[in-house]
Amino acid sequence: MRSLRTLIDALSDHNLTTQANIVFSKTSEGEKITITFEKRNQRVNDDEVDQWFEDNGKDNN
User: 12 in helix, strand or coil?
Assistant: First the structure.
């Protein structure tokens, strides 16, 4: 659960929690977190999300 809390905090720091649908599941094999971002009621491509994190991660390092 700690990883989920860290993830939610990071998304919240960048005001992304309102655009994210977060699904957490726990199995005997481990934890799985799935995040789907929506923008103006349309799905955002994975590439756009990856690029956003790359661009914004550089500022935090």
Answer: helix
pLDDT in tens, 4-47: 788 788 888 878 888 788 888 888 988 888 888 776 666 667 78
Alpha-carbon distances, residue 22 vs 36, 44, 59 (angstroms): 7, 14, 25
Q: What are the C-alpha distances in Å from 11 to residues 27, 28, 29, 32, 46?
A: 24, 27, 25, 17, 16
Place of tokens 């309102």: 18
How far is 33 from 6, CA to CA, in rounded Å? 12
Across-strand partners of 3? none
Q: Write down the pTM of the prediction.
A: 0.48
